[in-house]
């Protein structure tokens, strides 16, 4: 018998699940509390995540751990230069009887049950593949075998490393805009975590490590419904609305907001980006953070906490500054938060 | 009697009615003799004319060289009106540069003045001729002085300059230097130069001022929100950035002077969240009233003064 529970109580239960989920992933990915927390926020905001960082800092491990703890069908592809969009959809081969066969590829294999699609080294794939992802990410649907496939619970996780530039393709702006977050990962700073990672044999065998995780800590099929409930439950006051719009305005027109960064012509810094979709994603993510904090309303801290990961990759700078974006954009975001008053 | 009348009543025969217009010209000088090279010769010329006449400034002699040995240094005109006559008094200062070898008389040339009256029938003019007069000049020394071995002995020693007392000037200089320093300090404070660069505005004092009178407002909810916003802005100004509730520990670490009000600030941030983001102004007011806002602002302002902000 189903017991009818009050919506708030349901959300509270789910909050406990989310905490268990974070703890479970944290057993495997040590010293990356912020990344784990942001991925959790992304899951409950139903957003796609792009992880980027150095080689060997645990991007893939984190995503595998998240996929296992989340449960549901899971597919993984490795980006390569010669990968074509059809490689994701169809699998073509010669059967035993010598006849060519076409079967569903990685995306379609689990059909509509697919909950995590993990795209490793996404920047090694060609722009054609990125274009395919656009629809998959934005509409969670795909047309193949003359019919439309829908993936209501699909979440795309991708990673790329920042070290290599050869044989890689920069993601088009439209594709980047569809990622809810771009999470930068660095090796943990905490001395104990570093020691453990290097000397504890548990961390050396990634497969065993991942398999040791409890599977399906949260019910992946219910996350979509919970995500909707969170968005409707967490209130945004007029003050927070004004705050977000003021942040947006200051980020797009920093010179008019009175922001100064030495050595940079603020009037000719921002080329574009900072889309309304980006702002909507920001508020989605902030609402999830408020829910994880046990609040029923948004506060400026929610916005500020998720802002760099949600917004930084949506800011497009003039070409003269683009090469220095890794220092300019965080400085700009910090300045925006120091300038815009709340409330 | 200091002045000696040198020449009296030099009268001029003028035709027609002009005769009556210039009645008399008198030249007075202190003495007609005893002048050496470089001496000033002061002369007073009184011209009596008919009422209504006055001297035309353009006809006055111009200061400057008169002859090769004589220079007119200055000339002033003083006109007085009496009942039936007008008197024009010229004060002339000449300087003689004649290096005489013997005592001799030299003539100072006269000059003509034009006097004019602006009557009903037009302008009437007349000439007043100031006559030439002479002075006796004398040499300073004998023509052939006795020979000396050292030619410098012909020279007189330089006159001794009086010793000036620098005391008052030093006092004034010290006074103005003090004033200039004071002005510099005020300017440096205003512009936040040097040591004043670290000075912050008295942010919480301003908050305290702006909270005055809020308690008497008719709409207490709005007054309460204004008070919270004022305190937010005070914190922002003190820290130089926007301070949110989660930043309180970091804020207190940066500004340990305000640790005394840690509880008050925590209550403030809680109330602010409820008011602005939770839309529960009434609940916030019951937990932390406007009076407590004012009390906290007062304590913060006191801490700010103690910190020497």
Q: Please name the two chains that share the biggest interface, counting residues whose Cβ lies under 8 Å from a Cβ on the partner chain.
A: A-B, 18 and 17 residues
> Percentage of helical residues of chain B?
25-40%
The total beta strand count of chain A reads 11
How would you characterize the largest beta sheet of chain B? 6 strands, antiparallel
Strand content of chain B: 25-35%
Helix content of chain A: 40-55%
Low-confidence stretches of chain A: 1-5
Structural domain tally of chain A = 2
- Counted by DSSP, the helix tally of chain A is 15
Q: Which structural class do the helices and strands of chain B define? A: alpha+beta
N→C terminal distance of chain B: 79 Å
Strand/helix succession of chain A: HHEHEHEEHEHEEEHEHHHHEHHEHH
Average pLDDT rating of chain B: 84
CATH class of the largest domain in chain A: Alpha Beta
Instruction: List low-pLDDT spans of chain B.
Output: 1-18
Shape verdict of chain A:
globular
Q: Proportion of β residues of chain A?
A: 15-25%
Strand order of the largest sheet of chain B: 1-2-3-7-6-5
What is the total number of structural domains of chain B?
2
CATH architectural grouping of the largest domain in chain A: 3-Layer(aba) Sandwich
Describe the structure.
Chain B: Residues 1-20 form the signal peptide. Chain B: Keywords: Signal. Chain B: This is MxaA protein. Chain A: It comes from Methylobacterium gnaphalii. Chain A: This is MoxR-like ATPase. The complex is a heterodimer of chains A (343) and B (309). With 343 residues, chain A is α/β, with parallel strands linked by helices. Chain A has 2 domains: 10-208 and 215-227, P-loop containing nucleotide triphosphate hydrolases (Rossmann fold), CATH 3.40.50; 234-339, Helicase, Ruva Protein, domain 3 (Orthogonal Bundle). Chain A has helices spanning 7-28, 33-44, 59-70, 85-89, 106-109, 127-139, 173-178, 191-199, 206-211, 220-233, 238-252, 276-292, 300-311, 319-322, 325-339; strands at 48-53, 73-78, 90-94, 100-104, 114-120, 141-144, 147-150, 155-161, 179-185, 270-273, 315-317. In chain A, the strands form 4 sheets. In chain A, strands 2-5-8-1-9 form a 5-stranded parallel sheet. In chain A, β3 (90-94) and β4 form a beta hairpin. The longest helix of chain A is centred in the first third of the chain and has 22 residues, at 7-28. Chain A starts with 6 loop residues before the first helix and ends with a helix. Mean pLDDT of chain A is 83; it is low at 1-5. Chain B has 309 residues and is an alpha+beta fold. Chain B folds into 2 domains: 17-137, Immunoglobulin-like; 180-306, no CATH class. Chain B contains 8 helices and 11 strands. Chain B has helices at 18-21, 167-191, 203-211, 220-239, 248-254, 262-277, 281-287, 290-306; strands spanning 4-7, 22-29, 40-49, 53-55, 64-67, 70-81, 86-96, 104-108, 111-119, 122-130, 133-137. In chain B, α3 packs antiparallel against α4 (220-239), α4 (220-239) packs parallel to α8 (290-306) and α6 runs antiparallel to α7 (281-287). The longest helix of chain B is centred in the middle third of the chain and has 25 residues, at 167-191. Residues 1-18 of chain B have low confidence and may be disordered. Classes of the chains: A alpha/beta (343), B alpha+beta (309). Chain A binds chain B through residues 235, 237, 239-240, 296-301, 304, 337-343, and chain B through 228-229, 232-233, 236, 240-242, 244-246, 272-273, 276-279.
């Amino acid at each position: 018998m189903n017991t009818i529970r009050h919506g708030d109580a349901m959300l509270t239960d789910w909050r406990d699940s989310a905490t268990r989920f974070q703890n479970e992933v944290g057993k495997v990915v040590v010293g990356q509390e912020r990344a784990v927390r942001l991925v959790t926020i992304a899951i409950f905001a139903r957003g796609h995540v792009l992880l980027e960082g150095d080689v060997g800092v645990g991007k893939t491990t984190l995503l595998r751990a998240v996929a296992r703890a989340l449960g549901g069908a899971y597919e993984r592809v490795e980006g390569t230069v010669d990968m074509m969009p059809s490689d994701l959809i169809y699998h073509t081969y010669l059967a035993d009887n010598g006849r060519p066969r076409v079967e569903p590829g990685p995306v379609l294999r689990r059909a509509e049950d697919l909950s995590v699609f993990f795209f490793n080294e996404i920047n090694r794939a060609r722009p054609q593949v990125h274009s395919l992802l656009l629809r998959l990410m934005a509409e969670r649907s795909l047309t193949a075998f003359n019919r439309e496939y829908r993936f209501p619970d699909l979440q795309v996780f991708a990673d790329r490393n920042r070290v290599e530039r050869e044989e890689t393709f920069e993601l088009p702006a439209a594709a980047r805009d569809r990622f809810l977050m771009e999470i930068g990962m660095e090796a943990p700073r905490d001395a104990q975590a570093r020691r453990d990672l290097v000397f504890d044999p548990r961390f050396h065998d990634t497969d065993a490590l991942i398999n040791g995780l409890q599977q399906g800590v949260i019910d992946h099929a219910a996350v979509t419904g919970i995500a909707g409930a969170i968005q409707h439950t967490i209130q945004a006051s007029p003050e927070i609305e004004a705050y977000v719009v003021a942040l947006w305005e200051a980020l797009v027109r920093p010179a008019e907001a009175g922001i100064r960064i030495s050595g940079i012509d603020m009037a000719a810094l921002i080329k574009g980006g900072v889309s309304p979709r980006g702002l909507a994603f920001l508020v989605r993510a902030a609402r999830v953070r408020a829910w994880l904090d046990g609040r029923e309303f948004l506060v400026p801290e929610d916005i500020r906490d998720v802002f760099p990961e949600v917004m930084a990759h949506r800011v497009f700078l003039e070409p003269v500054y683009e090469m220095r974006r890794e220092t300019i954009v965080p400085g700009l975001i910090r300045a925006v938060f120091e300038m815009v008053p709340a409330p | 009697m200091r002045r000696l009348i040198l020449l009296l009543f030099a009268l001029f025969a003028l035709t027609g009615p002009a005769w009556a217009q210039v009645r008399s010209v008198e030249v007075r000088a202190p003495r007609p003799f005893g002048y050496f090279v470089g001496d000033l010769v002061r002369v007073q010329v009184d011209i009596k004319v008919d009422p209504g006449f006055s001297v035309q400034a353009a006809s006055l002699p111009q200061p400057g060289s008169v002859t090769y040995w004589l220079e007119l240094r200055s000339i002033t005109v003083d006109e007085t009106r009496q009942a039936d006559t007008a008197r024009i008094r010229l004060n002339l200062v000449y300087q003689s540069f004649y290096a005489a070898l013997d005592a001799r008389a030299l003539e100072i040339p006269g000059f003509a003045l034009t006097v004019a009256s602006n009557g009903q029938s037009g302008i009437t003019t007349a000439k007043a001729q100031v006559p030439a007069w002479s002075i006796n000049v004398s040499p300073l020394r004998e023509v052939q002085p006795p020979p000396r071995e050292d030619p410098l002995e012909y020279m007189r020693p330089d006159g001794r300059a009086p010793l000036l007392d620098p005391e008052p000037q030093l006092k004034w200089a010290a006074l103005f230097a003090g004033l200039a320093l004071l002005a510099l300090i005020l300017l440096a404070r205003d512009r936040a130069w040097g040591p004043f660069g670290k000075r912050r505005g008295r942010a919480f004092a301003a908050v305290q001022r702006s909270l005055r009178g809020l308690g008497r407002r008719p709409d207490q909810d709005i007054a309460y929100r204004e008070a919270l916003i004022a305190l937010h802005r005070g914190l922002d100004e003190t820290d130089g950035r926007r301070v949110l509730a989660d930043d309180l520990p970091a804020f207190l670490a940066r500004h340990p002077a305000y640790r005394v009000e840690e509880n008050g600030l925590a209550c403030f941030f809680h109330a602010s969240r409820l008011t602005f983001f939770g839309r529960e102004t009434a609940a916030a007011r019951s937990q932390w009233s406007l009076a407590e806002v004012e009390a906290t602002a007062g304590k913060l302002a006191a801490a700010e003064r103690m910190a020497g902000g």
